[in-house]
Structure to design on (337 residues):
């Protein structure tokens, strides 16, 4: 019964080897050492061919038992290794969380909110109008009758006959006056559209804030005082402003407003094209024809209006050199503000 002795030895040796299994690789090695095609158990099976039938029965059974036992034990060790491997991938809930980027408002939204809050402190209400506008409100009611050459100043995107994307926020003036009686004191922010060649300084869509103040005896001095106060509050108390005479069909007299360049404090630099000044809005005293268009009596009321270029002002204040950056939605760029 040398073979029975051998089987016992194999068991002992196997049990010792089993203790050494610590990963999948060593498990596989042990498995093939004992149960592989050329493994120890297979070679024992070869030996029984030499035995006489009686012994072969006994030893055969012992060998089969050995083989099954080893297999069962290997299976159980495999289960443990596998479980441990899974545990290694478990999430550690005690680790600090990954940092996440908190969203911010778009620089234009921030600027519009800041500008509106300045005007709110001066007593202006906020009004809104549609971005798709009729010819009447966008042009005719503003003293720009059909064929008026000034219509060409604003290359228009037409949606349909007499329907267009508004080219400025001025139509909110006549919309508002059509449904309200004086006194009127509003600011109207919003997008406007013009079919302009796209470049670093102009885009096919941009933002304006329209202002309108109508009451008895409103004067150009009120306009000037309001604009000056606004500029100092928004651009800083050292900002200087300058009114230049200009022309708009809906105001008479009309002016354009420049602020001293924030970058060079008026000394002249690349941003202000070495003039020391930056143009930020058009304004003037409301033309009597506009009052007539909305049913106000120009003998009884006067008013001032202005149209402020928001994108331009934001670019100036934040030192942004390409207007397109405001509309590219590049988060890396936007999150700086
Ligand atoms: N609507 C003009 C434009 O977009 C700007 C403007 C000029 C608005 C004078 C006004 C104004 O209200 O009085 O070019």
């Amino acid at each position: 019964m040398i073979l029975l002795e051998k089987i016992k030895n194999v068991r002992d040796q196997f049990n010792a080897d089993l203790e050494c299994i610590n990963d999948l690789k060593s498990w596989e090695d042990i498995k093939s050492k004992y149960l592989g095609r050329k493994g120890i158990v297979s070679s024992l099976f070869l030996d029984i061919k030499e035995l006489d039938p009686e012994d072969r029965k006994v030893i055969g059974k012992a060998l089969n038992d050995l083989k099954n036992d080893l297999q069962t034990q290997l299976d159980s060790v495999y289960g443990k290794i596998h479980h441990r491997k899974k545990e290694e991938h478990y999430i550690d809930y005690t680790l600090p969380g990954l940092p996440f980027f908190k969203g911010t408002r778009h620089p234009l939204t921030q600027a519009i909110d800041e500008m509106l809050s300045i005007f709110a402190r001066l007593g202006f209400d906020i009004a809104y109008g549609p971005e798709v506008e009729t010819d009447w409100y966008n042009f005719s009611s503003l003293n720009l009758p059909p064929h008026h050459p000034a219509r060409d100043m604003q290359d228009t995107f037409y949606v349909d006959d007499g329907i267009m994307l508004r080219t400025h926020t001025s139509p909110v003036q006549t919309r508002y006056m059509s449904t309200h009686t004086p006194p009127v004191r509003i600011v109207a922010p919003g997008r406007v559209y013009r079919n302009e060649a796209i470049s670093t300084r102009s885009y096919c869509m941009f933002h304006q804030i329209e202002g309108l103040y109508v009451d008895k005896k409103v004067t150009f001095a009120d306009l000037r005082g309001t604009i000056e106060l606004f500029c100092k509050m928004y651009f800083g108390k050292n900002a200087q402003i300058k009114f230049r005479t200009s022309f708009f069909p809906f105001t008479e007299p009309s002016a354009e407003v420049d602020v001293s360049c924030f970058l060079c404090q008026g000394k002249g630099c690349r941003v202000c094209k070495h003039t020391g000044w930056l143009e930020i809005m058009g304004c003037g005293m409301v033309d009597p024809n506009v009052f007539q268009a909305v049913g106000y009596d120009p003998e009884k009321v006067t008013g001032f209006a202005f149209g402020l270029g928001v994108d331009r002002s934001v670019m100036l204040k934040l030192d942004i050199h390409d207007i397109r950056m405001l509309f590219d939605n590049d988060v890396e760029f936007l999150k700086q503000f």
